[in-house]
Write a sequence for this structure.
């Protein structure tokens, strides 16, 4: 319990840091990118929206920095992230609400698949040392270095442009009716296969290399030798003794990898014009839509923090040491 | 691979050829690093790309921005990588872009490694509140997803800034992992006997760091540097692919940005987007192989990965879990 509380505290601090970065950044950059946007949209932005923009970007010089910070927080607690310029006059929170489920489903499922497949492959590679799996290491390091968006381009070129098996863009067939009906769900799955394949193939290699290295280290521990000496079958020694401990760093290192995978997934969505937050972010960047970019950054960071908290809980289940601490 | 194939001392002795080789070439630990197939392949790949970065812009046959009448031509002798929809020569864009990729990667990697050194060593040497704060800072930067943060910062900079700005922004987000690794290694070194002995002789903290701890950190720092360069290159290329950063600065991401924007996929212009991405992946593979080589160099247990099945069988061994063949090579054999 103590361990989980420590982690929750840490994530709270991180969330605070992300919000503060979001607050400080527009005030640090020389020049005033937002003022020009305000001029561009003058007449279209309601007085309340203008006021909220002033708070978000610190254009209100009558307030001290501290007062600005307090009203920024107040605004966040109301769920007010400002208005999007691209989807004017839709609030940023609404835009994100619509796109987030797509990303969470796609990235969530494909990250888990990539993790499980990569870890199992790593166990096998570490177990049968010097075998075929060893020869795959240069190939896997090649795949772990392939940029997600380039792999996405290649996959589109092969499977949709040349073979025509899958659609090259979008998240569902626009002629279906979005909702919980079979036609929509099956078309969403059909559209999701290629983006998911991209994320699985790109993330697979990293998990495999890490797991393989830990297996090699763990299998030389005394308790593994003892397990062998007891006459346990190789399968039991491998999975119940070696792999169980070797997987711990992979789970505790989830934070680092997840941030990287999420970044790559955002780019994948951009290439596939997938209706998730990656594609929205692409549009926000093109249009210099600052409120939307900031809102997206916060939401992505929070999602990563929550995923990490879940990984930490899995860690507690797998590593008794964290439990005995309390 | 067989030149590394001494499995145990006895197995090594069984093959006089191997032993001869070992006694011939040793002394420098770096030669051991070079003779690991992984790091050798990695270094050769890296050397190729460094050469490309130096010579590329000089030998590029065309101005990468110049338009021509050869629209969307497949590869030919005049245009080895074909042309774009506006008749630009992809090969020239590729050659010119190589320098930008390598420079931004190296500069960002260097700055990030310097930050991680300062943070990591200080955290390890000053336990208590300083360590807590510095480690928390590093962990926060590790957990916040780097690419969205880079996009956010770079997006706020007017006109994307020049390549130096891009390198700086990337290094701000790239130092955390290195600092954590360096901190852990420094902590473990701090309590080793030779450091304690040096401390007992009354050496100052500065000279302890400079002459006792730092030399033993070098492989770790090198590994973290190479990894950071890899990360920086991927980040820079991703930024350019989204269209952040100055658009008249060619790098491999810029080429892909235009290829994606001008429908290279739908028109089947594979020559436009295959070479830049392939180059990024091969360069990344080279850098990954070097880090793997350094890992094996630092942690000899991992070295058994280089054992050939056939060699094992000749030695009457079967590789499986719970069995660690001890590798000996020129670097570790002293007698």
């Amino acid at each position: 319990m103590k361990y989980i509380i420590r982690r929750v505290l840490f994530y709270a601090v991180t969330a605070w840091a992300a919000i503060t970065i979001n607050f400080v950044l527009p005030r640090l950059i020389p020049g005033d990118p937002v003022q020009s946007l305000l001029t561009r949209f003058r007449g279209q932005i309601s007085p309340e929206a203008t006021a909220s923009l002033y708070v978000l970007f610190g254009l209100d010089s009558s307030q001290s920095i501290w007062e600005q910070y307090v009203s920024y927080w107040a605004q966040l607690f109301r769920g007010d992230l400002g208005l999007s310029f691209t989807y004017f006059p839709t609030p940023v929170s609404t835009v994100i609400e619509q796109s987030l489920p797509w990303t969470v489903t796609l990235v969530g499922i494909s990250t888990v698949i990539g993790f499980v497949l990569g870890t199992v492959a790593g166990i096998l590679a570490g177990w049968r040392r010097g075998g075929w799996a060893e020869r795959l290491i240069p190939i896997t390091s090649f795949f772990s270095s392939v940029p997600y968006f380039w792999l996405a381009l290649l996959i589109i070129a092969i499977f949709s442009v040349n073979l025509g098996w899958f659609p090259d863009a979008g998240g569902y067939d626009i002629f279906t009716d979005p909702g919980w009906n079979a036609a929509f769900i099956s078309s969403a799955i059909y559209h999701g296969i290629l983006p998911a394949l991209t994320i699985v193939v790109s993330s697979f290699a990293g998990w495999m290399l890490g797991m393989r290295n830990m297996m090699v280290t763990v299998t030389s521990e005394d308790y593994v030798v003892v397990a062998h000496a007891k006459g346990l079958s190789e399968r039991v020694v491998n999975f119940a003794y070696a792999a169980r401990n070797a997987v711990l760093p992979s789970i505790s290192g989830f934070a680092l990898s997840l941030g990287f995978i999420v970044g790559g997934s955002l780019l994948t969505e951009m290439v596939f014009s997938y209706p998730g937050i990656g594609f929205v972010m692409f549009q926000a960047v093109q249009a210099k839509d600052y409120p939307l970019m900031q809102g997206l950054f916060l939401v992505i960071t929070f999602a990563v923090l929550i995923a990490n908290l879940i990984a930490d809980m899995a860690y507690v289940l797998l590593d008794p040491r964290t439990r005995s601490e309390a | 691979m067989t030149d590394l194939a001494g499995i145990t001392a006895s197995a090594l002795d069984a093959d006089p050829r191997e032993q001869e080789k070992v006694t011939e070439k040793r002394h420098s630990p770096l030669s051991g690093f070079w003779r690991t197939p992984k790091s050798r392949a990695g270094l050769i790949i890296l050397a190729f790309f460094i050469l490309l970065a130096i010579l590329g812009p000089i030998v590029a046959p065309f101005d990468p921005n110049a338009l021509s009448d050869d629209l969307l031509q497949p590869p030919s002798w005049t245009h080895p990588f074909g042309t774009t929809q506006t008749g630009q020569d992809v090969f020239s864009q590729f050659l010119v872009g190589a320098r930008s990729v390598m420079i931004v990667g190296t500069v960002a990697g260097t700055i990030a490694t310097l930050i991680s050194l300062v943070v990591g060593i200080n955290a390890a040497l000053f336990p208590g509140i300083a360590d807590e704060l510095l480690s928390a800072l590093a962990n926060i930067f590790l957990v916040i997803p780097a690419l969205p943060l880079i996009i956010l910062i770079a997006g706020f900079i007017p006109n994307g800034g020049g390549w130096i700005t891009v390198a700086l922004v990337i290094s701000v987000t790239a130092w955390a992992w290195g600092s954590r690794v360096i901190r852990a290694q420094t902590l473990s070194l701090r309590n080793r006997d030779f450091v304690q002995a040096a401390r007992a002789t009354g050496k100052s903290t500065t000279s302890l760091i400079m002459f006792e701890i730092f030399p033993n950190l070098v492989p770790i720092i090198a590994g973290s540097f190479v990894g950071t360069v890899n990360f920086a290159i991927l980040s820079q290329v991703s930024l350019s692919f989204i269209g952040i950063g100055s658009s008249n600065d060619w790098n491999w991401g810029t080429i892909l940005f235009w290829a994606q924007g001008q429908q290279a996929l739908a028109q089947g212009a594979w020559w436009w987007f295959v070479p830049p991405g392939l180059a990024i992946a091969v360069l990344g593979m080279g850098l990954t192989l070097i880090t793997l080589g350094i890992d094996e160099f630092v942690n000899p247990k991992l070295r058994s990965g280089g054992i050939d099945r056939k060699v094992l069988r000749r030695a009457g061994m079967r590789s499986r879990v719970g069995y660690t063949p001890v590798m000996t090579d020129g670097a570790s054999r002293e007698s």
Remarks:
- Residues 237 and 282 of chain A are 48 Å apart (CA to CA).
